[in-house]
Amino acid sequence: MAITGDPNTAPGTPRRIVVVGVSGCGKTTVGDLVARELGVPFLDGDSLHPVENVAKMAAGPP
Which of 6, 21, 22, 62 is most exposed by smallest CB count within 10 Å? Predict the structure, then answer.
């Protein structure tokens, strides 16, 4: 895993970890496990889409 960021960021400044990859590769699983290990909230990008769009993505159309 690569961690990047501004080394001049003030201590205690919230950081974000973004997990990216192709559909079905385990982003949600990895993101959830990392968040649990670090004791921070986890937000799955799919939760930001309307239910209809998530269903369409799950069905596979482009």
Answer: 62
Average pLDDT of the chain to the nearest whole number: 85
Could you give the CA distance from residue 29 to residue 31 in angstroms, rounded to a whole number? 6
Q: What sign does the dihedral 37-39-45-51 (CA atoms) show?
A: positive
CA–CA gap between residue 8 and residue 21 (Å, rounded) = 28
Say if pTM beats, i.e. exceeds, 0.90: no
State the burial class of residue 2 (Cβ atoms within 10 Å of its Cβ: 0-12, 13-18, 19+). Answer: exposed
Long-range contacts of 2-9 (CB under 8 A, 24+ apart): none
Q: Is 47 exposed, middle or buried (0-12, 13-18, 19+ CB in 10 A)?
A: exposed
- Dihedral (CA of 49, 53, 59, 62) sign: negative
